[in-house]
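Journal club prep — side note

Before the paper discussion, L.F. wants everyone to see what a predicted structure for a comparable chain looks like in token form. Sequence:
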Amino acid sequence: MTEHPGFGAMLTRLLDKRELSAQGLADRAGLDADEVRAVLAGGSPGKEFLRQVGPELGFHAVDLFILARLAVPDEMAPLDASAATWVKSTVTDAVLLPEANRLELLRLVRALPQEKRRSSFAPKLLAPLAGGPGAWVIRMLQYRNLNWLGIAMTLGLVTPTYLSASTYGMIGSDREELTPRLVTDFAALLAIDARDLATLTDVVLSGVPPPPPPAAADAATLLWEMRRLSAAQAQHTSDVAHSMRGASRDGDQVG
């Protein structure tokens, strides 16, 4: 098992990469510089600390909670775990649609009313001892309401990589290596800069990766926005996406 380096060490890597000091991050995030230095030295970050530094680092706060090995607050988790099936089908249909249709689908998702949470979000547990880089990225995708099959199908459509669902389970349990190719692919679906994700996971990229294709970027946005939907809302969205696909069968190209 790969030993977790600690959130402070990971944050240090990011700041070094960006040539940003503790004072600089504090100024941008509205924090006390001593608080930032304490975290860099190995102290446990507080919830508000993670909420405030996330946008300044280009990360969703939920991802920082996962990296810091802290429980994700309910308000940051997907609304309904049972929506996962419909999230997968929506996204896998959406990435095969023309860009205009993808944007129309995104507008639909954003316009749906916010329903109340009825239960806590409890993603499938990874192997008990998993705590390495593979576990971090799989957990991030689980908090976008993608299960292993959803990860496999979506990445198979928007990246050059096609692996089985069980392989992603092995990556999440640190039994399969996190390669540079996988880091780049995961980053596209997480809407994280691939170089940042490589820095965090200590994976060396061979060069500067190209930007993700538009369909991958749109899939990442759709995944994030669908986190707030109930299963019924996600099913409705899936039905709309499927209808759009039926109307554009002649243009099955990912763009």
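L.F.'s comment for the group: Residues 231-247 form the longest helix (17 residues). Keep this in mind when we get to the figures.
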